[in-house]
Sequence to fold (202 residues):
Amino acid sequence: MDHYRPTMNLTHIAFSVLSFSTLALAQTFTVRGEVESNDGQRIRMESTRVLLESSAVNLVALEDTGYYRFRVEDVGTPGQPRLRVLSAERDRDRFGFERLAIGQSTFFEVAGTPGARGFVFLDTFAATGVTVVPGIGGWLLSANALPVGSTAIRPDGEGTLRLDVPDSAALLGVRFTGQAAVVDGDRVVFTNPGAQTVRDIR
Fold:
């Protein structure tokens, strides 16, 4: 198990992963995640504020059916992120974390190829959006996302990272979204996002 330990190396990797150019709106790319809808009226990517639309895929039918790898186009703006879904394929759950509670520890779980390394980032839900990384896919956190730490992917295909949540009342009620970049040699995979709201469980 790896613990939270900010390093210059991690910071360098974080900026290397997140310093990218923006592609044209018509460029297609992939994102991973779950579908969440409000009675079919406002459909979005679970754990983010990114709205989804599609004439090719019945997105409402995908709600509560698991994780997908979506082929999409960016048709939104920074203030109103929106993706047009062109296709959807079943995918595995590649990222998640337990409850966030002040003064308590949480554990991030990252899935990937054994021997790879997962770099975990955390951002506020309100800051989520879409940035296209050429050759990799869609990053759903902002460029200011906090690099929490990294974990080696074990032979069982999972990695675990611990974070100690500060004992600060200012965090109560804040919803955070996390995502990981799994680096395996020269290949990088962005995971699905996950989100939790900070609570006091004492």
Remarks:
- Residues 2-22+93-197 form a domain with the S-adenosyl-L-methionine-dependent methyltransferases fold (CATH 2.20.130.20).
- The longest helix spans residues 8-18.
- The chain is about 5% helix and 45% strand.
